[in-house]
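Quick one, tokens below. Sequence please?
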């Protein structure tokens, strides 16, 4: 369980880093790559959700109900932030107002950091 959660975190963070790298260049070719990476990001996020869900079902802990509720809250906040960011910034608009894009991306990145940090700090140690 722990290994799958850690592997899912690594995959999710890896795709997130590749998105950041691609956006930095934002050529026409990069916009196409960003669309592909956003799909990969959604897949990695689903894998992480599944891995954590499976791990939570297999853990015997006195606070498992509260931990499960906290996970859903953090993960849901992260998903909403990412969805709002991507909805506001389709690949074709990136580069037109880079300051606003960066501010939007920072909000999504902060939500990711909070959720992943919580998983590492609270969930991984009990697996």
């Amino acid at each position: 369980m722990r290994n799958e959660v850690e592997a899912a975190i690594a995959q999710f963070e890896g795709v997130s880093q590749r998105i950041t790298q691609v956006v930095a260049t934002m050529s026409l070719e990069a916009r196409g790559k960003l669309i592909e990476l956003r799909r990969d990001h959604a897949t990695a996020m689903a894998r992480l959700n599944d891995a954590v869900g499976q791990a939570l079902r297999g853990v015997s802990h006195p606070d498992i109900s509260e931990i499960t509720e906290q996970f859903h809250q953090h993960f849901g906040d992260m998903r909403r932030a990412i969805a709002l960011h991507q909805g506001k910034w389709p690949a074709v608009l990136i580069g037109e107002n880079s300051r606003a894009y960066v501010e939007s991306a920072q909000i999504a990145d902060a939500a990711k950091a909070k959720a992943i940090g919580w998983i590492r700090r609270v969930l991984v140690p009990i697996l």
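DSSP finds four helices and no strands in the chain. The longest helix spans residues 28-57.
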